[in-house]
TrEMBL record:
Record GO biological process: anatomical structure morphogenesis; cell differentiation; cell-cell adhesion
Membrane protein topology class: Single-pass type I membrane protein
Keywords: Disulfide bond, Glycoprotein, Immunoglobulin domain, Membrane, Repeat
Pfam families cross-referenced by the UniProt entry: I-set (PF07679), Ig_3 (PF13927)
Top-rank lineage group of the source organism: Eukaryota
Annotated compartments: Membrane
Protein's name according to its UniProt entry: Ig-like domain-containing protein
PANTHER family associated with the record: ECHINOID, ISOFORM A-RELATED (PTHR11640:SF134), NEPHRIN (PTHR11640)
GO MF terms held by the record: cell adhesion molecule binding
InterPro entries to which the protein is assigned, alphabetical: Cell_adhesion_signaling, FN3_dom, FN3_sf, Ig-like_dom, Ig-like_dom_sf, Ig-like_fold, Ig_I-set, Ig_sub
Ig-like domain mapped to chain residues: 14-82, 149-240
Any one cellular-component term (Gene Ontology): plasma membrane
Keyword Ligase part of the UniProt annotation: no
Length: 343
C-alpha cells in the first residue's frame, strides 16, 4: 500500500491573551505589559490604544509607560491583525483583541471646589465642581437649610362682615415641617374643626406652609386677635392676625419715584391693608410748580410765577407701579402724596 503525507495549513485569526485583566502600578514607576498573540499567518500589526482616548496609541506587543502618572490610569486594548488567503480565495483581514485595566496608586493631590463660597437662597439648588490635578466633576443638589418658621404672608389683618364666611391665613416658610395651632385672644384653648371652625394646612415645593382658619358664619364674638402658633424642632413663633369688620383702607407707605421721563413719572409704594374690600383703587395727588434754569424746583416763598396752586388728582386704578402722564417737561411735581380708596 502506498502512503502519502499531506500538510494542512490551518489559517486562523489572531488570539490575543494578556496575563492579567488588571495591572497595578505606583506613581512615578515604569509599566511593561506584554500582549501574547498567536495566529496563522503571523500578525501584520500589533498595537495598543487607550479606551476613550483613540489619540493615545502604542505600536508593538509590549505596552511600556515611563514615569507613570495618575492620568495614565484607564483601560488599554491590545489589538492584533493578520491577513489570510484561503486556497483559491481572496485576501481577508482578521483581528483579535484583549483588554487590561491599569490602576495607578497615587496621592490625592490638592482638590478645589468651585465656587469656594457658594451662596444659595433657601429652597434653591446649588451646583459645585470638584477638581484636582487629574480631572474635574460636578454635582447638583438641593440645599435645604434647617431653620425656624419665617412669616411670609403680607398682612396681619382680615376684614369680614357678620354672617360672612371668613378665612384667616397664617403662612410661613420653615424646614423641617412645622405644626400649627390656633387660639382666640387670651383664651389658651386650642381651636379645632368643630363645625364653626375649619382648619386646613397645605404646602408647596418651596417649604411654604399655609394654615387657613375658616369661620363658617362670623358673629360679633368672632372679632378679635387670633394667635397662630407655629412650631418646628428649630423654633416656635406666634403670629397675631386680627379679624375686624370691613372698613376704609389704610394709607399706603414708602411712596417713591421708580422712573422719571421727559413727560412722565413712574411711582411705586407699599399698599396698605385694603379694609377687606377688594375693589380698592389708588389716587396720586400733586401740583405743578415752576423750575429754575438749573432744573430745581423754586421755593414757594420766591416763586415769581405760580404755575398751578391746585392739587391735581390722578387715578392710578389698581396699578402699582403707576405712571403719571402726560406732564409738562418744564414743570416739577411738588408735594406728591397718595391715597387708597374704595370705589
Amino acid at each position: 500500500m502506498d502512503e502519502k503525507i499531506i500538510t494542512v495549513d490551518v489559517l486562523y485569526a489572531p488570539i490575543v491573551v494578556i496575563e492579567s485583566k488588571t495591572w497595578e502600578a505606583e506613581e512615578r514607576s515604569m509599566v511593561s505589559i506584554r500582549c501574547n498573540v498567536t495566529s496563522n499567518p503571523p500578525p501584520i500589526t500589533i498595537e495598543w490604544f487607550k479606551e476613550g482616548n483613540p489619540d493615545i496609541r502604542y505600536t508593538g506587543d509590549i505596552l511600556q509607560l515611563q514615569d507613570v502618572r495618575a492620568e495614565h490610569a484607564g483601560r488599554y486594548i491590545c489589538r492584533a491583525v493578520n491577513r489570510m488567503k484561503p486556497y483559491k480565495g481572496k485576501i481577508v483581514e482578521r483581528a483579535g483583541n484583549s483588554t487590561v485595566a491599569l490602576l495607578v496608586r497615587h496621592r490625592p493631590g490638592q482638590a478645589f471646589i468651585n465656587p469656594n463660597k457658594p451662596v444659595v437662597h433657601v429652597g434653591n439648588g446649588v451646583t459645585l465642581t470638584c477638581s484636582n490635578d487629574v480631572s474635574a466633576t460636578n454635582a447638583s443638589m438641593n440645599l435645604r437649610i434647617e431653620h425656624g418658621p419665617i412669616v411670609v404672608h403680607q398682612y396681619n389683618k382680615v376684614a369680614y362682615e357678620i354672617n360672612e364666611k371668613a378665612d384667616i391665613v397664617c403662612r410661613v416658610q420653615a424646614f423641617p415641617k412645622p405644626e400649627f395651632q390656633w387660639q382666640l385672644g387670651t383664651n389658651t384653648a386650642v381651636l379645632s374643626s368643630d363645625g364653626h371652625y375649619e382648619i386646613n394646612t397645605s404646602t408647596d415645593n418651596n417649604d411654604i406652609y399655609t394654615s387657613v382658619l375658616r369661620i363658617n358664619c362670623v358673629n360679633h364674638e368672632d372679632y378679635g386677635d387670633y394667635n397662630c402658633r407655629v412650631r418646628n424642632p428649630i423654633d416656635t413663633i406666634r403670629i397675631s392676625v386680627r379679624l375686624q369688620p370691613k372698613g376704609p383702607p389704610e394709607k399706603p407707605t414708602n411712596l417713591a419715584a421708580a422712573d422719571v421721563g421727559s413727560n412722565y413719572v413712574s411711582l411705586i409704594w407699599d399698599p396698605g391693608f385694603d379694609g377687606g374690600i377688594t375693589n380698592t383703587k389708588f389716587f396720586v395727588f400733586f401740583r405743578k410748580v415752576a423750575i429754575s434754569q438749573h432744573g430745581q424746583a423754586i421755593d414757594d416763598c420766591i416763586i415769581t410765577q405760580q404755575v398751578s396752586s391746585e392739587w391735581i388728582e390722578y387715578d392710578c386704578q389698581r396699578n402699582v407701579p403707576c405712571s403719571v402722564t402726560p406732564l409738562d417737561p418744564m414743570e416739577a411735581l411738588l408735594g406728591q402724596y397718595l391715597s387708597q380708596r374704595c370705589k
